[in-house]
UniProtKB/TrEMBL annotation:
Keyword Signal tagged: yes
Pfam families, per database record: Germane
Protein name per UniProt: GerMN domain-containing protein
Alphabetized PROSITE patterns for the sequence: PROKAR_LIPOPROTEIN
Ranges that cross the membrane: none
Signal sequence bounds: 1-23
Taxonomic source organism: Desulfofarcimen acetoxidans (strain ATCC 49208 / DSM 771 / KCTC 5769 / VKM B-1644 / 5575) (Desulfotomaculum acetoxidans)
Keywords assigned: Signal
Coiled coil ranges: none
Length: 301
């Protein structure tokens, strides 16, 4: 009788041990299943960057558009795309591009610390190595490379540069020892590029030209109706425009309706009025096409 009980105890112990072992295995599987899966997805995206071309009979830098393919791992955003494009400029030219005479003006030591986008502006924060660049010609070509590369992106018309979080290129803080001042870098109006962009992107450029206080540039983004109102560039009411349309930041294009040579663009976002930011404000811009280029013209409605 005692032997039978002993065998039962042994069998019971073996069953319990087996159950515990199975439970342990089951627990491990559950823990593994609860772990967040690693995002190993990669996305290859084509971008256009601008390198310095070979100088031919002129000391002025000649820009050459170059197609590159950037790889984004996991997350995809406009900020990451912009950062990757600038880093391609820092990497420099390929062997094939070098043989063709292309160069880059960005120092290889410089790093991109941060990127911020608030339409129609992008702010790129660089490490301190950028501020010690020397030579007016080198600096000019760098500014052109950055300006043309980043304004390829939709919704970016003005490029603001920072070094260690502080804006450079202003009157209070010129860029490098050569004293460059530009506030926001912007592509000039006119030419094939200006004719190729949409009404909303033309509006972006007009807003940036107001922010820069550049009357000549503003005039080139104005349609015939509003030019007739002001008569001459010097008679343009800059204060009124600066406090109105020029105060828009961090907005989205709600709609863009094109009807022949006229278009209506509705934007919604932040507008500063008398020092106060009005959130989710809305503005309707009337645009007209003149000589193939979209221009701001409230008189065309």
């Amino acid at each position: 009788m005692k032997k039978k009980v002993s065998r039962n105890i042994v069998l019971y112990a073996l069953v319990v041990a087996a159950c515990l072992l199975m439970a342990g295995c089951s627990t491990n599987k559950t823990d593994a299943a609860l772990e967040s899966p690693r995002n190993t997805s990669e996305k290859k995206i084509p971008v256009t960057i601008y390198m310095n071309g070979p100088v031919k009979g002129s000391l002025d830098p000649v820009l050459v558009p170059v197609q590159r393919e950037i790889v984004l791992k996991g997350e995809d955003s406009d900020k990451l795309r912009v950062k990757a494009a600038v880093e391609e400029l820092i990497k420099g030219v390929t062997e094939k591009e070098k043989e063709a005479g292309l160069t880059t003006s960005l120092p290889k030591e410089v790093k991109v610390l941060n990127v911020g986008i608030k339409r129609p502006y992008v702010t790129v924060d660089f490490s301190s190595e950028l501020q010690v660049m020397g030579g007016a010609m080198l600096i000019s070509s760098f500014l052109e490379q950055i300006k043309y590369t980043l304004t390829e992106f939709d919704g970016i018309a003005g490029v603001i540069l920072q070094v260690n979080g502080e804006q450079v290129g202003t009157e209070a803080n010129p860029f490098t020892g050569d004293g460059f001042q530009f506030n926001a870098l912007v592509r000039p109006a006119g030419g094939s590029w200006a004719k190729s962009i949409s009404p909303s992107r033309a509006l972006d450029n007009f807003i940036v030209s107001i922010g820069n206080g550049d009357i000549k540039e503003m005039w080139l983004w104005m349609g015939p109706g509003v030019r007739e109102q002001y008569k001459y560039p010097d008679m343009t009411n800059i204060s009124e425009l600066s406090e109105g349309l020029g105060a828009w930041r961090n907005y989205k294009v709600v709609s863009e309706n094109i009807n022949g040579d006229k278009a209506v663009v509705i934007i919604k976002g932040d507008q500063k009025l008398e020092g106060m930011t009005e959130k989710d404000a809305q503005y309707t811009a009337y645009m007209v096409k003149e000589n193939g280029q979209w221009k701001w013209d409230p008189k065309s409605k």
